[in-house]
Design goal:
Number of strands: 11
GO cellular component, one term: cytosol
Number of domains: 2
CATH class of the largest domain: Alpha Beta
CATH topology of the largest domain: Rossmann fold
Protein name: Uroporphyrinogen-III synthase
Shape: elongated
Enzyme class: lyase
Strand content: 15-25%
Low-confidence stretches: none
EC number: 4.2.1.75
Mean pLDDT: 93
Keywords: Lyase
Radius of gyration: 21 Å
Strand order of the largest sheet: 3-8-7-4-5-6
CATH architecture of the largest domain: 3-Layer(aba) Sandwich
Length: 248
């Protein structure tokens, strides 16, 4: 069965130059963008239950733009005024620049890594070892950062400030796709929640990342496309090759 309609479980690309649009035009395929999950802040009440005082900390470590959004959102909810002396440590320059949405960048002490790996940010953190760090995080997270900070005897507090929830489908939303593309295990869980009687049949499923691929297998579903690979380092490259092969 040829692939005519694909659902990509991500927000619609901001740029019309996205490779997804090239694929759609090249193969005459309709590609829809619809996140299966969404991120929401904890309420002020939920945050208070962690018994954490934001202003007890002198530095914040941000691993994503989500972390920045929900940190400042909670500060507003709690009526906490973040002092200008607060230091910010970010995994990448892109994440660091995003802080401009909330504060005047040039007036703040902001540090960032160059590779996106948390280990690359460690030298900057070690230079400021006397700080008391706050680490905003999601309810679903790895322990990589925590383990690194503990190993290097960095004083810090981890705080769940946001969570990933299912972005439920409405009754009037059509679900007539030949292929579904997932980027997180939470997206696969959302599929099961929204469609408990989901019968895959001829519907192809593609994933990006090994944990997402495993989540598909654990759900008892057939995995048809797994990225990244050496030949296809991106999801769009993998999807292009897959549709080309299947739509001969």
């Amino acid at each position: 069965m040829k692939i005519k309609k694909v659902l990509v479980s991500q927000p619609k690309p901001a740029s019309e130059k996205s490779p997804y649009y090239d694929i759609a035009q090249k193969y005459g395929v309709k590609i829809d963008f619809r996140p299966f999950i969404k991120v929401e802040s904890l309420s002020a009440k939920e945050f208070r239950q962690q018994k954490i005082t934001i202003l007890d900390h002198t530095a914040v470590i941000f691993t994503s733009r989500h972390a920045i959004d929900h940190f400042f959102h909670l500060c507003t909810e709690l009526r906490v005024t973040v002092p200008e002396a607060m230091k910010y440590f970010c995994v990448t320059e892109t994440v660091a620049l995003y802080i401009q949405k909330y504060v005047q960048y040039r007036k703040r002490k902001i540090f960032f890594g160059s590779t996106g790996k948390i280990e690359d940010l460690l030298p900057a953190i070690l230079k400021h070892k006397g700080e008391n760090y706050l680490v905003p995080m999601s309810d679903v997270h790895t322990d990589d950062l925590s383990n690194l900070l503990v190993k290097n005897h960095i004083q810090h507090t981890e705080s769940v400030m946001y969570r990933t929830v299912s972005n439920d489908f409405t009754e009037d939303e059509e679900f007539d796709y030949d292929m579904l593309v997932f980027f997180s295990p939470a997206g696969v869980s959302s599929l099961q929640k929204n469609f408990p009687d989901f019968d895959q049949k001829e519907i192809r499923i593609g994933t990006f990342g090994s944990t997402t691929a495993q989540a598909v297998r654990d759900a008892g579903l057939r995995l048809d496309l797994e990225a990244p690979t050496v030949q296809a380092p991106s999801m769009t490259a993998a999807l292009d090759m897959f549709i080309k092969e299947n739509n001969k």
